[in-house]
Amino acid sequence: MSEDAIRLPEVDKDWDVPYQPADFLDLDRASVPLTGRTPAPALVEFVHQLIAAEGPIHEEVLLLHAREVLHLKSFTAPRKKLVLAAVGQLVEGGRIAVGGEFFDLPGRPCRYARRPFPGLTKRTVERVAPAERQTALAGLIHDEPGRPYGEVVADAVRFFGWTTSTPGAKSALAGDLYRLRDQGRVTGWPDSLVGHASS
């Protein structure tokens, strides 16, 4: 599936939300077996629930959060392979979509850009889906139209908790802004950006 598999909607007025990992406090860890050659149905369902709660989610973030929820100090290669096999089953069954290294529910538009929650680790540039970065850019332009390209990119860098020295931040966001422009979702290039609904 292409990078465009994770769709962008029109800008929601509440596009800006804090990023919080999914809450699985009531999960019985023993009910999610991480043994065997193929993933148990309970593991497949757990992975689906995690993706449904946190998508679009990067593969490495999925593995990290699965490990944390299951209270494991680390993933052995066989356990990691089982989790990824569960993802494979969900993809084959059409229950999740893949866009690059990101997983989400099929056809679910990326309505929110998630800023770092105070005190939690910030996601690296590579671990924020392009659709989520584009939602942040579109939201920033929607909330304050008429600003120049560089100012919008700088605001998006800050939104995700990055700095101007964060590797790849400005270039990734600039690429995302170009994509929005090429899709006709942003006009007034480059000095007075205005957002438009996707067609």
Identify the notable features of this structure and list them briefly.
two-stranded parallel ribbon, about 200 residues, about 40% helix, alpha+beta
How would you characterize the overall build of this protein?
By secondary structure, this protein is of the alpha+beta class. It is built from six helices and seven strands. The chain has helices at residues 41-54, 59-69, 77-92, 130-143, 149-159, 169-182, and strands spanning 16-19, 57-58, 97-99, 102-104, 113-116, 186-187, 194-195. It has a three-stranded antiparallel beta sheet with strand order 2-4-3. It has a two-stranded parallel sheet with strand order 1-5. It has a two-stranded antiparallel sheet with strand order 6-7. It is elongated, with a radius of gyration of 18 Å. The two termini are 21 Å apart. The relative contact order is 0.16. The model is unreliable at 1-9 (pLDDT under 50).
| Biggest sheet statistics | 3 strands, antiparallel
What is the chain-wise order of helices and strands?
EHEHHEEEHHHEE
Put simply, the count of helices is 6
The portion of residues forming beta strands comes to 5-15%
Class by alpha and beta content: alpha+beta
Shape: elongated
E-strand count: 7
Low-confidence stretches: 1-9
- Radius of gyration, in Å, reads 18 Å
User: Roughly what is the average pLDDT, rounded to an integer?
Assistant: 89
* Strand order within the widest beta sheet: 2-4-3
Q: Termini, distance in Å?
A: 21 Å
**Helix content range of the residues, please?**
40-55%
